[in-house]
Specification:
Blueprint: H1 7-15, E1 37-41, E2 44-47, E3 52-55, H2 58-61, H3 70-82, H4 94-106, E4 113-117, H5 120-137, E5 145-149, H6 158-162, E6 180-183, H7 197-215, E7 220-225, H8 241-251, E8 255-259, H9 273-276, E9 284-287, E10 299-303, H10 305-313, H11 331-346, H12 349-365, E11 373-379, E12 382-387, H13 396-412, E13 415-416, E14 418-420, E15 423-426, H14 434-456
Parallel strand pairs: 3-13, 5-6, 5-7, 7-8, 8-9
Antiparallel strand pairs: 1-2, 2-3, 4-10, 9-10, 11-12, 12-15, 14-15
Helix pairs in contact: 3-11, 4-11, 7-8, 12-14, 13-14
Bound molecules: 4'-deoxy-4'-aminopyridoxal-5'-phosphate.
Family: Belongs to the class-III pyridoxal-phosphate-dependent aminotransferase family.
EC number: 2.6.1.18
Keywords: Aminotransferase, Pyridoxal phosphate, Pyruvate, Transferase
Length: 457
């Protein structure tokens, strides 16, 4: 932000040069004076200079029940007093056991086996490792190829990053290349002129089937997909796409992994979006973020009963899935997740999302009158407002810089944004009210208009 900082802020910014932030340009460590977040309450964060900002991205798509929830604080403190840790390898403890049962009851289909992880990347990594394990157990070690999509984000471990399709983020980073294959995502903006939405959907589903056939169905193990590509820019698939991809996977005995790290726990108005929004019961499902609303790190991989039955049926000898974490089912994280779920129930948060989401969409769509706004994509309480300064000459870097300028102006006026490439991405806490949505959109409009005037000058 361009404002004058307090001495306290400057001191923290100086110490921050030792904090190597994620996704940081290592040639510029310490050169950026970042906003220092000091406190948070509800949908607001307060920086160390005392400025209060709407948390537009909801942390990183994770602060679903809002900041500062005393119930979670109390649950976490009480759990730490009672039992701060147990070894999940040799024993169990009430919070993780109760949470696993509660999650299995909420999850779609027969996703009754909950494998706790430390976050989303480790949930995806565990899913992929389970896929390899599964096919080894079934005596088909050649069935190991994974299909993912351009623009997808699945995590930052070696394997999950390899399945991501954000090409700029793959530069200089080695990847697992022999087993991972990307197909194009169903971004409606890629629909060729003259092609109907249905025809475009057919084409994208065919892309998946063609890739499976090209590699050989006996070699393809799994397809991994976010129901709505989140950090790829909030890409909403055409009607029927997700379901038909699932059918193609079933037809070719390819496992369908739903990456619901962003979309689970209310973002689209349901605990899980796969079944309730897109009509799919996946074979595996990954979550994190909204599971604890970011209060304590935790992720969870859900695995279908069917896969366990297949493994049992394949042979008599015992089969160890030799994968796990010191913090699998951590009692403090599980206590936070249980208190988080209690808030969802007590505050009828899913109903609230259903009530405010149409207003969120309507107000954001009003930005379409601005000359630099190219596309506005909204689903539930997630949105991407894409900008393009010159539609005849799209320029990623220039459009990205424009968004950074918009973010600066918005921050000066009380809104933290998340620029992702040429889109401003929003996923505010689910508790946001219609009045707060009006304020958010008003500041975003001001940011876009002011940055546009500067650009034109
Ligand atoms: N999958 C998706 C869809 C995500 O958006 C993310 C994080 N943004 C991840 C996986 C990785 O989660 P984490 O950062 O908790 O490891």
């Amino acid at each position: 932000m361009a404002t004058e900082h307090t001495e306290a802020t400057i001191k923290i910014q100086a110490k921050d040069r030792h904090f190597m932030h994620p996704w940081e340009d290592v040639t510029a460590i310490g050169s950026e004076a970042r906003t220092v977040i000091a406190k948070a309450e509800g949908i607001y964060i307060t920086d160390s200079d005392g400025n209060r900002l709407i948390d537009g991205p909801g942390g990183m798509w994770c602060v679903n029940v809002g900041h500062g929830r005393e119930e979670i604080v109390e649950a976490v403190a009480a759990q730490m007093r009672d039992l701060s840790y147990f070894s999940p390898w040799s024993a169990t403890a009430a919070p993780a056991a109760i949470l696993a049962e509660r999650l299995a009851a909420l999850a779609p289909g027969d996703l009754n086996n909950v494998f706790f992880t430390t976050g989303g990347s480790t949930a995806v990594d565990s899913a992929l490792r389970f896929v390899f394990f599964y096919n080894n157990c079934l005596g088909r070690p050649e069935k190991k190829h994974i299909i993912s999509r351009v623009g997808a984000y699945h995590g930052s471990t070696y394997l999950s990053a390899s399945c991501s399709g954000k090409m700029l983020e793959k530069a200089n980073m080695d990847m697992v290349e022999d087993r991972v294959h990307l197909i194009q995502n169903p971004n409606p903006a890629l629909r060729p002129a003259g092609m109907s939405t249905e025809g475009f959907c057919d084409q994208k589903v065919e892309d998946l089937e063609r890739k499976i056939l090209e590699l050989g169905a006996d070699k393809v193990a799994a397809f991994i997909a976010e129901p709505v590509l989140a950090s790829g820019g909030v890409i909403i698939p055409p009607e029927g796409y997700y379901q038909r991809c699932h059918e193609v996977c079933r037809k070719h005995d390819v496992l369908f992994i739903a990456d619901e790290v962003v979309t689970a726990f209310g973002r689209l108005g349901h605990y899980f979006a796969s079944k309730d929004v897109f009509g799919v019961e996946p074979d595996m499902l990954t979550t994190a973020k909204g599971l604890t609303s970011g209060y304590v790190p935790m992720g969870a991989l859900f695995i279908s009963d069917r896969l366990m039955v297949d493994i049992k049926a394949a042979g008599n000898e015992s089969k160890g899935f030799f994968s796990g974490f010191t913090y699998s089912g951590h009692p403090v994280a599980a206590a936070a997740a249980l208190a988080n779920l209690d808030i969802f129930e007590r505050d009828a948060l899913l109903d609230h999302v259903h009530n405010v989401a149409p207003h969120f969409e309507k107000r954001l769509q009003e930005l379409a009158d601005l000359p630099m706004v190219r596309d506005i994509r909204v689903k539930g309480l997630m949105a991407g407002v894409e900008c393009c300064l010159d539609p005849d000459k799209p320029d990623n870097e220039r459009d990205m810089n424009f968004l950074l300028e918009v973010d600066d102006i918005c921050q000066e006026n009380g809104l933290l944004l998340r620029p992702v490439y040429s889109s401003a991405v929003l996923s505010p806490p689910l508790t946001i009210t219609t009045k707060q949505i009006d304020t958010l959109v008003g500041i975003l409009r001001l940011g876009l208009e002011t940055a546009w005037k500067k650009y034109k000058a």
